Prior knowledge:
Blueprint: E1 6-7, E2 10-11, H1 13-63, E3 92-97, E4 103-105, H2 107-111, H3 119-126, E5 131-137, E6 140-150, E7 156-164, H4 166-218, H5 231-280, H6 286-317, E8 326-329, H7 330-340, H8 342-347, E9 351-355, E10 361-364, H9 366-383, E11 389-397, E12 400-407, H10 414-418, H11 441-451, E13 455-460, E14 466-473, H12 477-483
Parallel strand pairs: 9-11
Antiparallel strand pairs: 1-2, 3-4, 3-7, 5-6, 6-7, 8-10, 11-12, 12-14, 13-14
Helix pairs in contact: 1-4, 5-6, 6-11, 7-9, 9-11
Amino acid sequence: MTAAVRRLGGPTFRARLTLGMTLLSLVVLASASTVIYLWAREALRATFDSALFAVAQIEVASAIDEPGGSVHAHESPPAPPPPRIGAGYEKVVRMRSQDGTIDLYTIDLERGPALETDPALEARAFNGQVSFGDARRGNTIYRCVYYPFTDPQGHKLIATVAIPKGPLERTLWSLLGVLAACLVLGGAGAALGANRLARRLTQPLEQIAEGAKAVGEAGPGARIPDVSPDQELRDVTTILNEMLGRLETVFENERRFLADASHELRSPLTNVRGTIEVALRRPRSEVEYRETLGVSLAEIERLSRLVNALLTLSRADAGKLPFTFAPCQLAAVVENAVMAHASRAAERNVRLELAAPEPFEVLADADRLREVIDNLVDNALRYAPPGSAVVVSVRREGDRARLSVRDSGPGLSLDEQAHAFDRFYRADPSRARHSGGTGLGLSIAKAIVGAHRGRLSVQSAPGQGSTFLVDLPIPSGGQAGAAA
């Protein structure tokens, strides 16, 4: 049976399913056969004893039917030659009184071995109780009934009527053989049916496995086809395809991230190398060497910022970015960040405004929140046109704190908003990378806000500027105290 072969060192699910269903069927069949046999045995024995009791009644009635009421043994017409002891229907009768004055036998008992009766059952019969039991006569087992009666003279007697148990036992053995044959045939049929059913049940799973294997060879863009009309298997296929879709997105993001990271890292290295190579082509003055070193240092600083940003994102992805949570005044953190960017805003002729912040505490890492605010303000100043304003506000909305940074830049389309927090994504491809941005600031900000159980989002429209919103939970007094 092919389903029973071992794969990868262990039994297949189909083999275990077939074996389990076969064993269950055998247990049910064996239980049913046992019940049938026990019921039939008791029914046959009860019928046998009822027939024996009827025979005993007839024998007793025949024993006292002569005139004068003398007890005599009723004989059946002999069938020459005499039958073999214990074969077929062979009735033997013994009648005797308790004092032994009356002791009568049928001719069959006089011809052959004596009937070894049970004294205890005879004693019960003399006390007036009909009893059944087994007795041996030679090598044959007889079924006996001890039947008490009284003759016309008032003597207490018992009639022991016995019939060989051979026919009953042969009937039971025949029944047992039939049930055993049925069990064997039923077990074979159950195994065949279980194998066919297991094949039908596991075939869709094998097809799903083959589909998954094909996906592994073709790539995460492939999908597993529907292989069964059963809702459970369709759900499994749907879940697997959804997982493959997510994996495809992750792989694509990782591929794009690696490509962008390689490009971003290679760009400052190429600039530094080119600058140094040009400087070494001929002797330079001290001023020219200092200019070369200044350009190289600026590129190295940009490379350093990029490496640090990549390290931060890598730690955030692995859940190992360190945080120190404590109650802090969000308005104070925002105010310090705005003051730190004031000079840069003035250089770009942009008004940096802080709109009357509300004083309240949040449970957060103040340094990490400052990093988020710096990234958002820096991003707003890059896009804000000269003469415009960047407005930062902090307010409380129920049990949430909302920080917003609004600029008057070119705004974002819906597609650009969907990718605003992607790594190395720039809404304006024409903007030069040497302006200082790494394309990772918003990604880092989103990771930090997520670690605070908050949410970072953007609201924008082309030509109407952009507003970045940070929502953070505000802990109750007990939670803040416990954290502190």
